[in-house]
Specification:
With 244 residues, the protein is α/β, with parallel strands linked by helices. It has 8 helices and 7 strands; from the N terminus they run ααββαβαβαβαβαβα. Strands 1-7-6-2-5-3-4 form a 7-stranded mixed sheet, with helices on both faces.
Length: 244
């Protein structure tokens, strides 16, 4: 409980003190790099405060200079920060519309090009995905959690198709990612943060340049199977020993 309170206080103070400088710099230079540097520094410090370690497998499969849509399962609050930290690119992300109601954070997400999805309003969701497709075509990688929400029991849920259509329209490879451990660090519905290890496996990216929009279901299922195989491997081996 004390650990969680200290971490949230740190993040709040960090954002309040650093965000104005980063926002002004971004608006003047039209360069979002400082926002990512600021975020990664905060993630490193918060991770140290929480006692969270990260192990990564398969990172060599992510080729330098290539654009990807990183598609991951979603187990807990630490998933997105961990991926932003370990992926060697400044990624945009597809987020719930509710995230855009958080003061200051919503401004930062808008500046870097995060795409909010309002699933209850299909027309708006479609417009958001079209915007994401344009960003992908400009060479800007994305992180997405196609389950749409965190798993309550740790098991892999059904996927939504939107992000795969987006990748197909842009001709961008999909990089499946399996993540485990964040749920144990902060179980759903709890405030306390426990020390622990988050494991990440990068699977072989799936090229989409020879696919059409009609292949969205196939691409979605292929991605889900790879992520599921990573979870099965992690369950068989002691933590930190999955080879990916």
């Amino acid at each position: 409980m004390i650990r969680a309170t200290l971490v949230y206080l740190f993040i709040g103070l960090y954002v309040v003190l650093m965000a104005p400088i980063a926002v002004v710099w971004t608006l003047v230079t039209r360069d979002t790099a400082i926002l990512y540097k600021m975020a990664r520094l905060a993630i490193r410090i918060a991770g140290w405060m929480c006692g969270v370690k990260v192990t990564v497998r398969g990172k060599e499969r992510i080729r330098s200079g290539y654009n990807y849509v990183f598609v991951s399962n979603h187990q807990g609050n630490f998933d997105a920060p961990v991926l932003l930290h370990v992926i060697p690119r400044d990624c945009r992300a597809i987020v719930k519309q509710e995230m855009m109601r958080i003061p200051v954070l919503s401004l930062l997400m808008k500046l870097v090009g995060f795409v909010p999805i309002e699933r209850s309003r299909p027309a708006r969701a479609h417009k958001s995905l079209e915007y994401g497709t344009r960003l992908l075509k400009q060479g800007r990688p994305f992180i997405a959690f196609p389950e749409g929400t965190r798993s309550r029991d740790g098991r892999l849920g059904p996927f939504k198709k939107g992000v795969f259509v987006m990748a197909l329209k842009a001709g961008t490879p999909v990089a499946p990612v399996t993540i485990r451990g964040s749920r144990e660090i902060q179980p759903p519905g709890t405030y306390a943060i426990r020390p622990g290890t988050v494991e990440v496996i990068f699977h072989e990216p799936i090229p989409t340049d020879r696919m059409t929009r009609q292949d969205a279901d196939c691409l979605m299922e292929r991605t889900r199977c790879l992520i599921a195989s990573g979870l099965e491997e992690m369950e068989r081996l002691p933590r930190g020993l999955a080879t990916g």
